From TrEMBL:
CDD domains: MTAN. This is Nucleoside phosphorylase domain-containing protein. SUPFAM superfamilies: Purine and uridine phosphorylases. Coiled coil: none annotated. The lineage of its organism: Eukaryota, Sar, Stramenopiles, Ochrophyta, Bacillariophyta. GO terms for biological process: L-methionine salvage from methylthioadenosine; nucleoside metabolic process.
């Protein structure tokens, strides 16, 4: 196909998705997911493309009202969405991330992923190869020309289920040659591979992982600006 006619955009947090959903005037799809699922879907058109945005919704299991961040809800939401929309041409994982200054990242930068991998699935069992399975590196769709056209940087996104990092995490993030860090991308890549759906990520840096400030403080301070940046970048990407 010369053009994508059906695109799913997976965004973990409602706060990240809201400006883009409002900008494209997407409509909420109340019956898209199973009633038991906490996930949320919005749909509409942008130029010739059918757009579906999915978010992970809020925590109902523990009753906290927190956003369902992390690999488990991300993988399940994407798997269910691609089951629902088997003709999907492309899945884009959009959201915020931490960036590594050692790899040239700065707050506000937009990155397109070259690959995704895990840094906290450490399974040192040689036979069968659980180490490779644990890292779970998956190549992204090649989008070098796209990166040039929107003035984005490119790099590997490393995924783990904690906002902070340990020294052991850092060792594995370096081994992954990661430019950015998030809590969903590798899980989303895995779900896409099961459906044989092309995929890549677009990530806006909210905090510097190897910087001097606490991650949570930088993330909260820059979340709104990063969400607005996604609202500007995503239509260009599509």
């Amino acid at each position: 196909k010369k053009y994508c006619t059906s695109v799913v955009i997976a965004i973990a947090m409602e706060h990240e998705a809201a400006p883009f959903v409002e900008h494209l005037k997407l409509e909420k799809e109340d019956n898209f997911f199973s009633p038991k699922a906490p996930f949320v879907a919005y749909s509409g058109k942008y130029e010739k493309c059918n757009i579906t945005v999915i978010t992970n919704g809020k925590d109902e299991v523990h009753g906290t009202g927190a956003e369902n961040v992390g690999t488990v809800p991300a993988a399940l939401a994407v798997f269910m969405a691609l089951d629902k929309l088997p003709e999907t041409d492309l899945l884009i994982n959009a959201g915020t991330c931490g960036g590594f200054r050692r790899m040239g990242a700065e707050i506000g930068d937009t990155f397109l992923t070259t690959a995704v991998a895990n840094h906290d699935r450490r399974i040192p069992i040689p036979q069968p190869d659980y180490t490779t399975y644990g890292v779970g590196k998956i190549e992204s769709l090649k989008v070098e020309k796209l990166a040039e056209s929107i003035n984005a940087k490119m790099g590997v996104c490393t995924t783990g289920n904690s906002l902070d990092k340990t020294d052991e995490d850092d060792h594995h993030m370096k081994a992954n040659e990661a430019s950015v860090k998030d809590m969903e991308a590798a899980a989303i890549g895995w779900a896409c591979e099961l459906h044989e759906t092309p995929h890549f990520g677009i990530k806006v840096v909210t905090d510097i992982v190897d910087g001097e400030h606490p991650t949570q403080d930088e993330f909260l301070a820059n979340l709104a600006a990063a969400a607005q940046s996604l609202q500007t970048s995503l239509p260009k990407v599509i």
